[in-house]
Amino acid sequence: MGIIVWCVLFAIVIFFAFVATRMAAQNKEDGLHDTGLAIIEFGRAFPTEAIRQLQATENGQAIFVRLHDNKAGFMRNMSRHFACHLIQPGRVRVISSQTGRGLVIDFLDAPHHNGDFEFASAKESAEVALWLLGNYIAEPDKGLPSGVISVANKQ
Q: Which residues sit opposite 86 in a β-bridge?
C-alpha cells in the first residue's frame, strides 16, 4: 500500500513539473510578434492616436509605433503586461548600434526603457531612426528664423 502512495505522489510531482516548465516556456515565447495585439494594446493606452505603421524588434520584445501626425510611440513587453510610451519631441537620444542593425536609445522621460534595440535588418533600423528623427525636433524649433534664406530657397 505504501509503495502505491509514493508512486502516485511521484506522478503528481512529475505532472506539476511538466506543467510549470510548459508555462515558463510559453512566457519566454510571448512577445509582441503579433502586430494585432500591439495595435490593440497601444490603442487601449492611447485611444486618440491613430497608428500609421509598426516596426518590431528582432526578438519581439519591443515595437516602435509611427503615428498619424509623425509622432512616435514605443511598446515593450514587461512579462505580465505591455508598457506603452508616447515619445515627446526632443525627449529621446538615438545612436546607431555597432551591428548596424540596431539602435541605442535613451528615453529622457522614461529612462527605465533605455536600451539597445536590434532589428531584423539595417533598413528597419534606419526606418525607426527616421521616425524618431522626425519626432526629435519640437514643432517650435522646426521653423527657420525670419530673414534667414535656406540653401533650398536660393536661386
A: 73
Q: Is 136 helix (H, G, I), strand (E, B) or coil?
A: helix
Taking the C-alpha atoms of residue 85 and residue 113, their distance in angstroms, rounded to an integer, is 9
Residue 101's nearest CA partner among 70, 54, 59, 38 is: 59
Distance from C-alpha of 111 to C-alpha of 67, rounded to nearest angstrom = 22
For the question of whether the overall pTM of this predicted structure is more than 0.70, the answer is no
Q: Cα torsion for 99, 102, 104, 108, to the nearest 10°?
A: 170
Tens-place pLDDT, residues 79-129: 777 889 998 888 888 999 898 899 999 988 888 889 999 999 999 999 998
Mapped onto helix, strand or coil, the DSSP state of residue 10 is helix
CA 119 – CA 116 distance, rounded (Å): 10
Q: Are 52 and 33 in contact (CB under 8 A)?
A: no
- The strand ranges marked E within 57-122 are 62-67, 72-77, 82-87, 92-96, 102-107, 115-118
CA angle 92, 126, 69 (to 5 degrees): 60
